[in-house]
Amino acid sequence: MESVLKVERLTVYRGNYAAVREVSFCLKPGTATAIIGPNGAGKSTLVQAILGISLRQAGKVSILGQSLGTSGHLPTRVRQNIAYLPQSFLFDRGIPMTVAELVDLGWGKPGLSLPWVGLRERHQAVIQALAQVNGSHLMHQSIGSLSGGETKRVLLAYCLVRPRKLLILDEAPAGLDFQGELEFYQLLNQLKLEYGWSILQISHDLDMVSRHCDQVICLNRSLICQGSPEVALSPENLMAAYGPEFTRYHHSH
Amino acid sequence: MGQNLLATTTLISIMSIDTETARLIGLFQFPFMQRALLSSVVTGLLGGLLGSFAILRQLSFFSDALGHSALLGITLGLLLNISPVLVLLPFAVLFGLGMLYLLERTQLSTDALLNIIYSSSVALAVIALTFIKSYKGSLTQLLFGDILAVRETDLLLSILLLLVCAVFLGLTLRTQMLLTLHESLAKAQGIAVQTQRTWFVVLLSLVVALSIKAVGVLLVSTFIVFPASTARLLSQRFTGYILMSTGLGALNAVTGLGLSAALNLPSGPSIVITQMALFLLTIALSSLRLISSPEGI
């Protein structure tokens, strides 16, 4: 089966140091993969380099069989099959934009087109995406008035507004309450099992990772280990990634 | 007797209103006044349209600094004895791109850097002006503009620029919206953020440069900032906001020009006062909750 995402010896420099060094892994279709590691381990840098948001200094990335250009270029049809939810979504809260308008932007890069082309089709998709995240009531609200949890839901709807093959989430459930988090993971599971989406997510929640993910990538600048949760989350590997203090803490309760 | 006096006074005031209206109508029969009217509409539309994106992208002070620095461009034109418009347009674009380049690389805060740039340019320009013996125009005209002095070439260039801006922003609207909202999301969708930003600054610089004749270097950025700031109070939807900002730009400019003609006031400042009055009125109405305001100011 062809990989949805293939990363080979990826290296990204931040100033003078390598934030990510020679990382290689691949993602199979319809699987969920978690990237774990301590703060400053280069997790966000890694996903940003995969998306072409940050530029890499060495290595190869290919998504759905297409190589990512060194300046971050990917064909539009590939881009439309990827959705990304960033860790921090800081925006000008005074921006006049409704939830429906934001979710609509997830439809993808339209190139040069008249703004009303495909409006009806997109509008239907927006309604469905918001319903999937239980956010239909937010549709006409200004995005500046949303709470942290509501913003996360709306951004997830932005990702869901069209069918994708790869969903990349950077600590997505942060800000959601207990119920919201539960629904969030149920939705991810549904996307994976029913629609065959591949999910790559950065997470700090090791319990969630062991329950919901098929593959774990343990990162601390370079790849510490990768494999099934049982293997990657073994005390030896966690110690290698986080240091001895963490392992003691994690297994003491 | 008292009633007769009242009736006579009323009649005189009605007659004087009629005379005043006739004078205004007569005034707008002159080609220079018609050009000024059309120019105010086009400049207002341009400022409102570009301004709606500019204020959300933190480019208000950028427009202001560019406007002030344009004085240096005009002076260069006078020194080289070339028509100021011919020098001003390329000067503004190069200067705008230069400022963008520095802003992306500096460790200084944006406002400090812009302040350094524009005050240096103004100082250089004023010193250079003292060396131009043949300069007949007044500094006041450069500083505050004169919409009545707008020529056909300026007007045609503005109309052309309006078409270019409307087509460019219309065809890339969703790209522009995403870019205004969040840069990383835009990059993740494959939007060439740098290229888009450069094009926008080029258009913004041209708009500022072409509006200078009408309102002068000191007040030009108000065309960018006021209509958009007012529209932001009036609309929660992005598309509604852009259209409203564009429309308000034209409405303010025409009303201001009318005010200037009626009361014989300088045109540029009259337009700015109109913009301010509408802005304050909108704030007052939204704080009284007579109109819905998205987030206040």
What does this structure look like?
Chain A has helices at 43-51, 76-79, 99-105, 119-132, 148-160, 178-195, 206-212, 229-232, 235-242, 244-251, and strands spanning 5-14, 17-27, 32-36, 58-63, 66-67, 82-85, 166-170, 198-202, 215-220, 222-227. The longest helix of chain A is centred in the last third of the chain and has 18 residues, at 178-195. In chain A, 44% of the residues are buried. With 253 residues, chain A is an alpha/beta fold. In chain A, the strands form two sheets. A six-stranded mixed beta sheet of chain A has the order 6-7-8-3-9-10, with helices on both faces. A four-stranded antiparallel beta sheet of chain A has the order 2-1-4-5. Chain A has two domains: 1-81 and 164-253, 3-Layer(aba) Sandwich (Rossmann fold), CATH 3.40.50.300; 92-161, no CATH class. Chain A is globular. Chain B is built from twelve helices and no strands. Chain B has helices spanning 2-27, 31-56, 60-79, 84-105, 110-131, 139-144, 152-171, 173-181, 183-188, 193-234, 238-263, 267-287. The N and C termini of chain B lie far apart (55 Å). At the A-B interface, helix 3 of A face helix 8, helix 9 and helix 11 of B.
Question: Biggest sheet of chain B, open or closed, and with what strands and sense?
Answer: none
Helix content of chain A: 25-40%
Instruction: Kindly estimate the percentage of residues of chain B that lie in beta strands according to DSSP.
Output: under 5%
Strands of the widest sheet of chain A, in order across it, are: 6-7-8-3-9-10
What is the strand tally of chain A?
10
**Count of DSSP-assigned helices of chain A:** 10
**Architecture of the largest domain in chain A, according to CATH?**
3-Layer(aba) Sandwich
Poorly predicted runs of chain B: none
N-to-C SSE string of chain A, H for helix and E for strand: EEEHEEHEHHHEHEHEEHHH
Radius of gyration of chain B: 21 Å
What class would the helix/strand composition of chain B place it in?
mainly alpha
What is the β-strand count of chain B?
Answer: 0
- The CATH first-level class of the largest domain in chain A comes to Alpha Beta
In terms of per-residue confidence, which ranges of chain A show pLDDT below 50 for 5 or more consecutive residues?
none
Count of the domains of chain A: 2
Number of helices of chain B: 12
From the spread of the alpha carbons, the general shape of chain A counts as globular
Q: Name the chain pair whose interface involves the most residues.
A: A-B, 37 and 31 residues
Distance between the termini of chain A: 40 Å
